[in-house]
Write a structure and sequence with these properties.
7-stranded parallel β-sheet, about 725 residues, 21 strands, 28 helices, globular
Length: about 725
Amino acid sequence: MDLVPALQEPLKKVLGPATAKVMAEHLGLHTVGDLLHHYPRRYEERGQLTHLADLPMDEHVTVVAQVADARLHTFASAKAPRGKGQRLEVTITDGSGRLQLVFFGNGVHKPHKELLPGTRAMFAGKVSVFNRRLQLAHPAYELLRGDSEESVETWAGALIPIYPATAKLESWKIGKAVQTVLPSAQEALDPLPDTLREGRGLLPLPEALLKIHRPHTKADIADARARLKWDEAFVLQVALARRRHADTQLPAVPRVPRPDGILTAFDDRLPFTLTEGQRKVSEEIFADLATAHPMHRLLQGEVGSGKTLVALRAMLAVVDAGGQAALLAPTEVLAQQHHRSVTEMMGELAEGGMLGGAEHATKVVLLTGSMGTAARRQSLLDLATGEAGIVIGTHALIEDKVQFHDLGLVVVDEQHRFGVEQRDALRGKGKQPPHLLVMTATPIPRTVAMTVFGDLETSVLDQLPAGRSPIASHVVPAADKPHFLARAWERVREEVANGHQAYVVCPRIGDEEDDPKKSGKKKAPEDEAEKRPPLAVLDVADQLGRGPLKGLRVEVLHGRMHPDDKDAVMRRFAAGETDVLVATTVIEVGVNVPNATAMVIMDADRFGVSQLHQLRGRVGRGSAPGLCLLVTEMPEASAARQRLTAVASTLDGFELSRIDLEQRREGDVLGQAQSGARSSLRVLAVIEDEEVIAEARQEAAAVVAADPDLTGLPALRTALDALLDEEREQYLEKG
C-alpha cells in the first residue's frame, strides 16, 4: 500500500534469494512493503498454550506445546523389509488437548534427541487424520529454550507472533524476516487524510506496523489492528466510491415501458400473482431504468425466489421502450435452460415475426459458442436488425462479431463467474452504456455487499413463492456409521419408487490423467495418513449402477462432456427418462427439474457452505418435499463436520453465509470475490467489522465527492494505485 522506495525494495535483495523465492511463490510477497503488510494471524503468550482441541483439518498450523512423551517404534516396510523401519511418535499437550506428531525413517534421529518429555517448542505442519486421530506428520519445530540470547531476542516480548505460513516456510522464519525489514516501516506513507486519522484517534501508519509485528501488550495489538482495519476499509471504499462517481457521469438512455405493451401482456398471462418482494424489487428496477444514468443493481435472491421472473419483466420493460436486452449465463447448459424457461414463460409473446405470434411479441434468440453456423448467423442477424428483443447466451455474446441494434439492458446471472472486463466489453455494445442488472443466488451479508459489490445498488428477494416445498437436510457420517450410508441409498430408491428423481453430486469427474509423479512410487507409511482423493462422478456412477442403485436408470453429467451430450442428458433427466443423475457441480446453478426430490452430496466436506446451499436448492422445487443428504467421512469433532451440521440445521441462506464467513479466515473472506487475486483484506473481518466498513464508506464518499481525483491526497492516491494496480481494479468488481 505504499510507494516509498525503501518499501518497494525487492525482498530478494534484503532476505536472500531462497527465502524470497518461497515468499513470492507461496505467499505472494515480493517487496519489503508486502512483507510488512503480512500481519500475524494471532499471538501466543509464553506460558499460555494454543488450544489443540480446536485444530482445523487439512490446514497448516503452528502450535506452541510441551512434549508429554516420545516413543521410537520399528516396523517392516517395503523399504526396510527386515523390520528396520523406524517411526518416532511424539505426543504433545497444551492442557486443552493432545496431539500426535509422527516422524519416519532417517528423519527420526534429530527429533528423538531433541524432543524429550517436558521440552517446549513451536511445531508447524499440516493437520491430518490417521486412525481417527489428529496428527502432524513430519512437522517442522523450533525449540523454545527461553534462556539462550538468540531465542529471547527472536521472540522479543512476551507475545509470539504466529504468521500465516506455508509448508515451505514456517511462521518463525517469517517472523525473523519481518524483524529484518521492520526498520523500513518508519518510511511508510500514510494513506489516511490527517483530519480523518486524528478525528478518529488512530495511530500513524509506521507506529501501527511496528506494534502489529512487535507488540509489547495486548493493547498494542488492538490499537494497531484498529488502525490497519481502517486503512483497508477506507482505501477499498474510496476505490468503490470513485467507481460509483465515474458511473454517475456516464449517460444512458432512459427506458420507460409503454403502458399497454409486451410487459402488460406478459403480466396478464401469468398464472399466479407476484410476491410482495417481487413487486417491490421490480419497482426499484423500473425506477432505475427510467433515469439518464446506467442502472447498476445487484439482485440477490434465495435459490428459487423468482429472480428470473423479475429479470424477465425488466427485459420486457426495455423491449417495450424500443431497446434490446441480453441475459448472460455462466455456462451453455444454463444459457439453454434460461432460453427454454423464458420462451415457456412468454409463450406466444416470444414468437415475434412468426405466424401465431402475439400482437406485442418479440423474438427471443439463443447465442452460444457451440451453435451451428446457420443458426448462429440467423441469431446474429436478428440482433443486428433489432428483430430479436431478447438474447440469451454465454460470454459468446461479447465477441466482436456480435452487433446489437440498440442494447438497453444487460442481465448477468451468477456474477462471481463474470469479470469486469466482460462487463466493460458488453457496455461497449450499446450506443450509450446499457443498464446493468446482476443476479446472484448466493446470499451476501450486507457488509460483504458493501465491500465486494460496493459499486452496485442492492435489491433482495427473500420470500419464496407459494407452492415451494421445504427441504429436509441430514448429515450422513459414512465413516462412523456405515449403515447410515446404506440407508441413504435406500431413501433414493424410495423416492424413485414414488415416481421422483434424484441427484448424486461428487467433487471430481474421474477421467483425469493420473499424476505420474504420484503413481510412480510406492506409498511410504507417512503418505497413508494423507486423505484419499475426492470421490469421482464416473467411479461413483459405476459403483451405484452395479450396487445399491442396480436396476435404476443412472446417467452422468459433468463439465468436460460435449455441449450437445450435456444438453441431451439434461433433457432426458428433465423429461423423467433418467432416475438418478450423478453429476459434478455443473448442476449448482439454475438447473430446474421440479420432479427431482432427493440429493446425495458425496464428500460434502469438500464443498463450501454457500456451494452446498446452492446445490441443495436444486431439490424441493415442485410440490413434493425435498431431501438433501450430506455424506462425509470427517470425524465428529472436526470443523468440516460442524460446517455440515450448520448447513443441515437451517435453510436461511443469509444465516449460512454468515456462518461461512465466520468460519473462514479473514484473508479469504473475499476469496471468491477477488476471483484469483490474493484478497486485499488482511485484518478486516467483514462480519465483525461491519461498523468500520459502513463508516469508511461514508468517509470515502465524502472525500470523493469533495475531490474526485484525490489531487489533495497524494498518499491516498498511491495507496489506491497499489490496491488497484491494473489487475486488482478488475478483481475488485469480480464478485
